Prior knowledge:
By secondary structure, the protein is of the alpha/beta class. It is globular and about 40 Å long. α5 crosses α6 (about 105-115) and α6 packs parallel to α7 (about 135-140). α7 (about 135-140) links the parallel β4 (about 120) and β5 (about 145). It contains 8 helices and 5 strands, in the order βααβααβααβαβα. It has a single domain, classed as 3-Layer(aba) Sandwich (Rossmann fold), CATH 3.40.50.
Amino acid sequence: MIQRTLIQGYCIDTSALIDLRNRFYPPDIFQSLWKDIEDLIKQGLLIAPQEVYDEISKKDDELLEWARRFKFMFENLDTFQSEEAKTVMTDFPNLVDPFKQIPDADPFVIALAKTKNWKVITSEKHGSSSHPKIPDACRRYGISCLSLIEFFRECGFKY
């Protein structure tokens, strides 16, 4: 009998990328952390939907410059993700702001993680019933949702 190992990866949200790169872990100080993160990306184990890239593109900064170098980590929407995103929006209509010019990436992050059976990394905290956040939707769908520190611990990152 052939035994196959299921590799589970991570789908990262815009808030976590902003915190990671711009707020708390700048690459000029945390060089080893960024090498490890970029290695996960190169292995295809850390991804985000294209909508995260679109959100990042709203501000021309170091994060956008970095995202351009790793554009391959941002996955285009497929039929399965589209259907899952619709389900997320039906179940959590207040997850996004309907008046934003660029759509919120949140339902697409959740949909991508759900279709791959992967974990979500976000800096968002639980919201309320009237204004749910990514962790609330993840809990409902049985998707593991990690903070950056929980992600570092799970990956065994120590610096």
